[in-house]
Amino acid sequence: MNILKKFNLKDLTTFGIDAFTKQLLIIEKDEDLETLPEFISSDKSLILGGGSNYLFTKDFDGVVLHPEIKGIKVIEETDEHITLAVKSGEIWDDFVEYCVRNNYGGIENLSDIPGQAGASPIQNIGAYGCEVRDTILSVHGMFLETGKWKTFTNAECDFSYLTSIFKAEFKNQFFVTEVAYQLSKKNHKLVTHYGSVSEYFQDGKEITPRTIREAIKQIRASKLPDPEEYGNAGSFFKNPVISTEKAEKLQKQHPDIPLYPQNEKQVKTAAGWLIDQAGWKGKSKGNAAVHSKQALVLINKGEAKGKEIFQLAYSIIEDVQQKFDIQLEPEVNII
Ligand code: EPU
């Protein structure tokens, strides 16, 4: 294990904002977790993988654990499926590319999502009509406070929209070391119904895991900022879920509001649309800005402080609340 003192997390987060941690522990193998100092407790530690879902508004007075455990192993294979055990420090998109290259289907719609494989179950990453929970068999790791190891089955992960038990009940308590994914080798269930994806295939292009990955890469590049150019954390807000009653009322006032019914009582709407309609798209406050092509994404225009991004987010939340009576919730973890 590599231990670094007073470490600047700027390069470990995609927002690229200065924030120091007292200590950074780089976990390079499972055994490193067995030799952790005793002071690891969830209120004084956090687990930072690719750092694509964190906004630091101040220094962190504790210990940051960073997984660097690597490896992809086949654990089962039939004519139809393959099960792969992937170590948590693998780069997620490298794993997607590996699957597509081998014609393993199931995660191609989740192309170009920044971060590590270990974060995929925590967030239950989802995009373009797919969620990673549909491919996860199990999640293995260790509880930091007790040193107990556990393998969670898919059902035990308690997955729902952009969250899981690891982001809720066991937030920063369970260190994921390995995730097992089951992927298809043939008869892939390829998902292209999402608006921009179906448009891409309108002209009759062949639909394969490879072409879907190409479609997604193109769509994302046209809408989302490149973190190399502008620090950002992808969607800053979750898409809010509102009551069917409220949705009907809003639809009368705004006939083009995007509405995705979840069940009889609940409807999801698009945070990006609400922020856009509230006039925030492309607007800046100091060095923090709302991306000009996707209002759901807040960006660091250069030397933004975490507090500036936070203040911009707060102004947006207040404004959307006032205009639509909807409370936006950040998707990003704010420290
Ligand atoms: N919209 C606007 N203006 C905007 C942005 C969006 O009017 O500035 C409208 C769009 O026209 C569309 C609706 O809002 O009708 C939904 O927008 P979009 O299809 O761009 O996707 P989203 O629901 O806003 C979610 C994920 C994204 C993911 C896309 C594609 C969340 C919070 N975000 O965005 O995830 O890439 O779907 O599946 O669920 C991420 O997590 O970092 C991320 C980018």
List the helices and strands and how they pair.
Elements: E1 2-8, E2 20-27, E3 45-47, E4 54-55, E5 60-67, E6 72-77, E7 81-87, H1 92-101, H2 120-123, E8 126-127, E9 130-131, E10 136-143, E11 149-153, E12 174-184, H3 195-200, H4 209-223, E13 231-235, E14 241-243, H5 244-253, E15 259-261, E16 266-269, H6 271-277, E17 284-285, E18 288-290, E19 297-300, H7 306-324, E20 333-334
The structure holds uridine-diphosphate-2(N-acetylglucosaminyl) butyric acid.
Keywords for this entry:
335 residues; Uridine Diphospho-n-acetylenolpyruvylglucosamine Reductase, domain 2; Uridine Diphospho-n-acetylenolpyruvylglucosamine Reductase, domain 3; 3 domains; five-stranded antiparallel sheet; four-stranded mixed sheet; binds uridine-diphosphate-2(N-acetylglucosaminyl) butyric acid
Walk me through the structure.
The chain has 335 residues and is of the alpha+beta class. The protein has 3 domains: 2-67, Uridine Diphospho-n-acetylenolpyruvylglucosamine Reductase, domain 2 (2-Layer Sandwich), CATH 3.30.43.10; 72-184, Uridine Diphospho-n-acetylenolpyruvylglucosamine Reductase, domain 3; 231-334, UDP-N-acetylenolpyruvoylglucosamine reductase, C-terminal domain (Uridine Diphospho-n-acetylenolpyruvylglucosamine Reductase, domain 1), CATH 3.90.78.10. Helices cover 21% and strands 28% of the residues. It has 7 helices and 20 strands. The protein has helices at 92-101, 120-123, 195-200, 209-223, 244-253, 271-277, 306-324; strands spanning 2-8, 20-27, 45-47, 54-55, 60-67, 72-77, 81-87, 126-127, 130-131, 136-143, 149-153, 174-184, 231-235, 241-243, 259-261, 266-269, 284-285, 288-290, 297-300, 333-334. Strands 6-7-12-10-11 form a 5-stranded antiparallel sheet, with no helix packed on it. Strand 17 and strand 18 (288-290) form a beta hairpin. The protein starts with a strand and ends with a strand. 40% of the residues are buried. Bound molecules: uridine-diphosphate-2(N-acetylglucosaminyl) butyric acid. Uridine-diphosphate-2(N-acetylglucosaminyl) butyric acid is lined by residues 127-128, 234-235, 238-239, 258, 270, 272-273, 276, 281, 294-296, 331.
